[in-house]
C-alpha cells in the first residue's frame, strides 16, 4: 500500500544516514522525493537511482546549509522542481560536536546553530508559500535535548531549540492546516555516531536503552513516514521519542 502517493517531499541531508533512509522510505510509500545533499553528489545520485529503480520519482538538489543563504538557495531550487505544492518537509541535515565545555570554540558553536537551527528555520520560512492544508514539517531533534549523554552541550542546545520551534511553528501554522513535529532519535548507527563502531561504544549506547540493540536509520525513517502520513493527522506540536526507550 502506498500511503503517500501523489505527495511531494523534501528531505535534507538525504545522501546518507538517517536522511537517506527517510528519503527511501517516503519514496516506497509513493512520494516524489527531493534528495538534498551538501557535497556528497555521488551518494545523492545513488539514492535517486535507487528510488527510480524501484519505480519512484526523485531528484537531487545541493546547498550548503551552513551559509546564511543556504536555506534560501535550497528553497529556490525546490520550488523550481515541485512548483507550488510541497506536502512533506523533512529538515534532517545536521552536524554534531562532542567536546568538553572548555574546548568548544565560538566557531564550532556558530556552525552548530547555523546548520541545526538557522537553516531549518529559514527553510520552513522560504517554503511556506508552497505549503497548505495537509502539508507537514518534520524536524530531527535528539535524545540529548531532554537527557544528558556524552559531551554534547552545544549540540544538545541546538536540538532543544528545535523542540521549541516545533511548538511555536505548530501553533502558528495550525490554522492553515499545516502540522509540525519532530522525531528525537537516541543513538543511531550512522557516520555521525561513529563511536558505535567500537565494541565499548556500542555497549555504552545499548546500556542506556530499554531495547537491547543498536538503532538503524530505518528505525527512525519508519516514525517519520508515520508522522508524514494521514494516520498522524491529529498529531502536531510534538517531539516523538524514537529511541528504543533511552534514558527512561
Ligand atoms: P550523518 O552525519 O550521517 O548525516 C548528516 C547529513 O546532514 C549528511 O547528509 C550531511 O551531508 C548533511 N549536512 C551536514 N552539514 C551540512 C551542510 N552544511 N549543508 C548541507 N548538508 C549538510 O548523520 P545522521 O546520524 O544521519 O543525522 C541526521 C540527523 O539526525 C541530524 O540532524 C542529527 O543531529 C540527528 N540525530 C542523529 C543521531 C545519531 O545517533 N546518529 C541521534 C539523534 C539525532
Automatic annotation (TrEMBL):
<comment type="similarity">
    <text>Belongs to the short-chain dehydrogenases/reductases (SDR) family.</text>
</comment>
<protein>
    <submittedName>
        <fullName>SDR family NAD(P)-dependent oxidoreductase</fullName>
        <ecNumber>1.1.1.-</ecNumber>
    </submittedName>
</protein>
<dbReference type="InterPro" id="IPR020904">
    <property type="entry name" value="Sc_DH/Rdtase_CS"/>
</dbReference>
<dbReference type="GO" id="GO:0016491">
    <property type="term" value="F:oxidoreductase activity"/>
</dbReference>
<dbReference type="InterPro" id="IPR057326">
    <property type="entry name" value="KR_dom"/>
</dbReference>
<dbReference type="InterPro" id="IPR036291">
    <property type="entry name" value="NAD(P)-bd_dom_sf"/>
</dbReference>
<feature type="domain" description="Ketoreductase">
    <location>
        <begin position="7"/>
        <end position="191"/>
    </location>
</feature>
<keyword id="KW-0560">Oxidoreductase</keyword>
<dbReference type="Pfam" id="PF13561">
    <property type="entry name" value="adh_short_C2"/>
</dbReference>
<dbReference type="InterPro" id="IPR002347">
    <property type="entry name" value="SDR_fam"/>
</dbReference>
